[in-house]
């Protein structure tokens, strides 16, 4: 421990204290989380108990709804039953999913089966009730009304005829119809086997009375045909037929009402107590789960209290011992540390002064270097501008040399064409000279022929005098032709000589042009090389200028950095002085001088967390209370 630094000692002590605080906080957090979870489960169990009570209320509402349906046969009650049954099935399924025990799950499953049978029984009653309504509307009520109408018609006829006996029997039959209707209505309102038997008996009595009326009438007619009455012939058979249909409808109605009564007593009424019994099993399971949660919470509270006390005591002991060791180590080594701090502070002050002076000199040199590089950059920009201008002039000279070369080559080609033309002219002159020589020879031959003709004309004498004149003229023409051919030959010879001289001159001009073309090509190549060299020189100067710009930027940054370094050196110097004064204060504090008092932080007690208690009143489970509640439900169910 003595070899550890002060920071490590303090850090270790704080770490140990924080470790115990963290452990204490973790234990408390886990405990509170578990308590909250337990309380959450307890709250859910209370909600489950309330939902169980809601299920019982829903069952009573379904029971009341069925009673109202039996009295009114309204479709609204059927729709309301479907809605309540769907809510009941969903609630039972949700409760079964959240059940905490197998017993509760089985109880809810049995309750669901009871409700399913209850719903099926209600559907059967709905079907029978529909049949009852159809029988009443289509058979029973129309039949009784028809019988009453026919009997009243007969009664009016008998009274008008003064047939007192017939009117009495008809009136008795009509009274029987009314009594049968009343008995049927009583059965519809409230089922009774006695009323059913009475209604059937009245319907049978009505049939007997109608048959007696018909038989008596038939006997009278058989005895005296004048007593035949068209009204009775029509009404009495129809009354018997209507009574037969009425009796059948009453019988079917009685069967439907009996089935409704049996289903109601067998499949509906017993469901209520059984359903409550299953719900009570579910409630008892919830109460048991609540008791277990309460016991677990109380045990957890006790365990957490012991852990908190133990951890707090251990942390207090370790913190006290660690604090004593740290204070002891600090007081033992503080004097040596203060001495070393004083010497280090002195050295730091000297070094800071040297760094400050060096930084100032570096900043001045960097500023001067930045100025020199900036001037060099300006000069290079001017050189670069001149180099770019030379490169442009070289490029223009290259273009002009290329154009001169093209013109010289074109002149050489034209000279070659002219030489060819001169050669053609010389050949034409030679051909003309040959033709002139031929003409000269022809003139010479003509002259000879003319002399021969003159000689022959002289020999002929006077007969050849005309021919001699012609021969003389021919000789004169041949002489002139020879002279003209001679003159033309001289001129053509002169022209041929000049043509030859022109060809020789053209040949020399062509040779001179060829020399000019070759020299122009060489000059074009040299100017191209000069242009390329100027372009390369321009690029090189551009690269140098870019490098100078980069050097300028770097130098500017270095100058800025040097200024910042100088500023930081001055700050360091000031901080060194502050540190020197701080060490003097520390020495005075260690040696018992004046101390600067710091305000102590006031400690506030941590707020206590509110722990929610599980000490809630337990639900009543006494046999007397349970029996009282069951009796109340049975009374509600049955009534």
From TrEMBL:
<keyword id="KW-0145">Chemotaxis</keyword>
<feature type="transmembrane region" description="Helical">
    <location>
        <begin position="304"/>
        <end position="327"/>
    </location>
</feature>
<keyword id="KW-0807">Transducer</keyword>
<feature type="region of interest" description="Disordered">
    <location>
        <begin position="591"/>
        <end position="639"/>
    </location>
</feature>
<keyword id="KW-0812">Transmembrane</keyword>
<dbReference type="InterPro" id="IPR051310">
    <property type="entry name" value="MCP_chemotaxis"/>
</dbReference>
<feature type="region of interest" description="Disordered">
    <location>
        <begin position="355"/>
        <end position="384"/>
    </location>
</feature>
<dbReference type="GO" id="GO:0016020">
    <property type="term" value="C:membrane"/>
</dbReference>
<dbReference type="GO" id="GO:0006935">
    <property type="term" value="P:chemotaxis"/>
</dbReference>
<protein>
    <submittedName>
        <fullName>Methyl-accepting chemotaxis protein</fullName>
    </submittedName>
</protein>
<dbReference type="InterPro" id="IPR004089">
    <property type="entry name" value="MCPsignal_dom"/>
</dbReference>
<comment type="similarity">
    <text>Belongs to the methyl-accepting chemotaxis (MCP) protein family.</text>
</comment>
<dbReference type="GO" id="GO:0007165">
    <property type="term" value="P:signal transduction"/>
</dbReference>
<dbReference type="InterPro" id="IPR032255">
    <property type="entry name" value="HBM"/>
</dbReference>
<feature type="compositionally biased region" description="Low complexity">
    <location>
        <begin position="618"/>
        <end position="627"/>
    </location>
</feature>
<keyword id="KW-0472">Membrane</keyword>
<feature type="compositionally biased region" description="Polar residues">
    <location>
        <begin position="368"/>
        <end position="384"/>
    </location>
</feature>
<dbReference type="Pfam" id="PF00015">
    <property type="entry name" value="MCPsignal"/>
</dbReference>
<feature type="domain" description="Methyl-accepting transducer">
    <location>
        <begin position="344"/>
        <end position="573"/>
    </location>
</feature>
<keyword id="KW-1133">Transmembrane helix</keyword>
